[in-house]
Amino acid sequence: MVALDGPSLGRMLEDVAVGKIQLPDFQRQWKWDDDRIRALLATVTLDYPLGVAMTLDTGGEAQFKARPLYGTEVSPGTVPEQLLLDGQQRLTSLFQALRSTKPVETSDTRNKPVQRWYYIDISLAVDEKSDRDEAIRSIPVDRLLRGSFGRTHLDLTNREAECAVGFFPLNLVFDADATGRWQRAYVSGSEDRWDIWSAFQAKVIDTVKGFKVPLIRLPRETQKDAVCSVFERVNTGGVVLNVFELLTATYAGDDRYSREHGHDFSLSEDWRRTKQMLSSAYPVLGSIDADSRHETGLTSLDFLQAIALVQTCQRKQRFLVDNPGAANAPAVSCKRRDLLHLPLADYSALAPEVTTAFAWVGKFLASQHVFRERDLPYGSQLVPLAAIAALLGSKARAEPAIRDGLARWFWCGVLGELYGGVTDTRFVRDVEQVVAWLTNGGPEPDTITEASFQEQRLHRLTSRNSAAYKGIYALLMKEGAVDWRFPDEGISEQNLTGWSVDIRQVFPKAWFDRKGADNTRMTSIVNKTALSFQSYQVIGGNFPSVYLKALEEAAGISGDWLDDMIETHHISPKALRVDDFDAFYRDRATRLLSLVERAMGKATV
DSSP state, 516? Predict the structure, then answer.
């Protein structure tokens, strides 16, 4: 229902004050700075058009936990009649400036928090030639306006002082009794103020009281996904609403859970505990800060998608058991609509299982020598991997044949670079197809059959932005690469950070510069391998024939021993010892292609 000529501003602010209008809990706190509030007050006092507000009638299918607007003193337990979807900043600012008995909490031009009272200069307000913005005055919390050297040049600490300079406090405008008392004090100072007050009453006070707020009022029948979509379209505060926040508000408003447990369910707190547990044990899954505002790696959306995949897959399996041969089975899906309609009961039942699955994913990645978040080829691939692990169960995923199959699927996705675009449909296909392939002897999943690795791609892999680049780096370590400075053990999770292992060039840039050689192959993954910072210091800008001797001396080992260590990187030591880049590059490319083929279980192109 759209009301272009909506309720009066006074009526809306009254509803805000008593809690009839509240915010859905997914709305974030946000307040305007001082300049924007002054401009807003000028707009209202001039009866200029104001942006449309939007509310949702409560009591329908879309139930969200509500909270009062900032600065109000609503009685606890007050049930709102409407939830404010758009207009939070305007109504919060107007309520604090025009209705509250407390100073407005805002910020200055340097974004420093300040408290302000808002006044209007009566003489400027009734002057047709004056700019209304100049008439709206922002006064510090102590009601003293100071000039240079801290000298007070405007004192508004009492009513007599306000009346003397003709500064009307705008937070009295909807209080008729207080306005009347202020008026009597003002006109008592001079007979000619009656005319000025009459003009001010008509131009400002009556205008504000008669101001209409354009309002779109959504009926209670509006569904949750529609609310989410509408909010994203109308939100102008620059803060994008995500499904997790909307679901957090939905779960917090679940009356059944509150009655059974005596408190609201906090999805954000549940996720924070889950993510902290996972990330502390498996750094590859990223991190999360104490207040859950910033997270890296595995996200809350990833977790919800994995749960939705498991939930919808189990729902389909139950349907097919009850209806053999039926063609109208419910689809497996993890789109936004599926997440928004995920019941709290299903979330509570599946979250522990999916958490365990993600912990298994952390162990699986470590077995593939992907230890750090920065080295993870595709974060998105973790979603179907966890869902598959949950559906397989702990007993099945412990079987060597199933682990090998999952590793092959994983590497086909990485080296085939199949998870770089829109992934929702691939999620669904992989979950259904991989589980059927591993447990029921079904056909190979599309991710395996569609994956291909072309030889030319090897030469173009030059940066960590590529999933295949990270994949080859991990495979080299998985194959047992030994650092050239530390001969006693291979590169592992335990020494990866301590040794500052990274992808480093075999033939350094200095070699290309001194030889005047074509450097198009210099940055290829073919000319790089996993080495410690200590090894890199010895390599420096030296030719391979030089730095190999230096490495032998630094590590206290023989040339044959070092050659064996070089071989663990799929590099020919013979080519390095004679500084033959072409021979090295051809041989290394061939070996890396074999490495890719073994991981994918299929020939390269």
Answer: T
